[in-house]
Amino acid sequence: MNWKGVIPAITTNLKADMSVDHEALAAHCQWMIDSGCNGIVLCGSLGEAATLSFEEKIAITRTCVQALAGKSPTVLGIASLSTVEAVAMAKAAAKVGAKGLMVLPPYVYTSDWREMKAHVSAVIGATKLSCLLYNNPVAYKTDFLPPQIAELATEHENLHAVKESSGDVRRITAIREVCGRRLDILVGMDDAIVEGVYAGAVGWIAGLVNAFPEESVALFDFAARGDKARAHALYTWFLPMLRLDTVPKFVQHIKWIQAEVGRGTPFVRPPRLELAGVDYELARSTLALALKHRPKS
Q: Which of 89, 136, 146, 216 is within CB 3.0–4.6 Å of 174 for a Cys-Cys bond?
């Protein structure tokens, strides 16, 4: 499992009847890898994990593993209301060929470090798969602090990375301070990628990459190489769209943009509804401006 570079958190392709479109999903995974990405993360927040059943998540994992045929690793997001189900999901993912797990705190229930540590430890310890701890206190109300992350890294040999989505790039420095190079640190918010790389992140779990993979890979590479002039120019163009990854309707925005560039459908499962009103206008105007000034390859 390679946690470096651009790793898309892919959307879940849906048909008009809200069933999963496995054919489109396989093609999308292949496009991401052919465009220079280093792996695929399935069934995260952007993948509408909360609306997918256990069986659907494993079926999606199987589809993507088969589509990539060993060319690149598949990572399943492990999020559940219960620890028992999360552990079972991790084991099932391993059986169908996933190479990594993105480990989240439980949905809904938010508690102290003792309980959160017990939950994520159970998931990380359920298999030998390489694990990425997902820290997103804004969305999940659980904040894994740098010393706590270091504690998990000490106790779990297969914890290899952290997806840092607190929105505070100082966290990257703080994690590095207590963990050294023990863990790979990845940026989890699209509109913090350049700042995050400059602070020491080595990877990006990306969202708008679902519609603009070549630009996403180029932006990461420019930043990682220290080519600040080209990174700044591309970031300036990309930022209005990247900011759509950090708003409540980020799933709808990214899926709509995908559909507009011919790489998916805008269908989302309720309680989400397709874009309308000011939300639609925001996506429309943002994409229109981006396409008008899109950099040449």
A: 146
pTM, entire model: 0.97
176: tokens are 């590095």
Where does the pLDDT of residue 107 fall: very low under 50, low under 70, confident under 90, or very high at 90 and above? Answer: confident
The structural domain count of the chain equals 1
Taking the C-alpha atoms of residue 198 and residue 91, their distance in angstroms, rounded to an integer, is 36
Tokens of 44: 């995260």
With contact defined as beta carbons under 8 Å apart, do 61 and 74 qualify? yes
Q: For 58-83, write each residue's pLDDT tens digit.
A: 999 999 999 999 899 999 999 999 99
249 lies in some domain: no
Please check whether residue 43 lies inside any domain of the structure.
yes
Predicted local distance difference test score (pLDDT) of residue 193 = 98
DSSP letter at 294? P
The reply to whether 177 falls in a domain is yes
Q: List the beta bridge partners of residue 280.
A: none
Structural domain includes residue 59: yes
Q: Which residues pair with 131 in a beta bridge?
A: 101, 159
Nearest to 5 by CA among 197, 246, 244: 197
Residue whose pair of structure tokens reads 């010393």 in the numeric block: 147
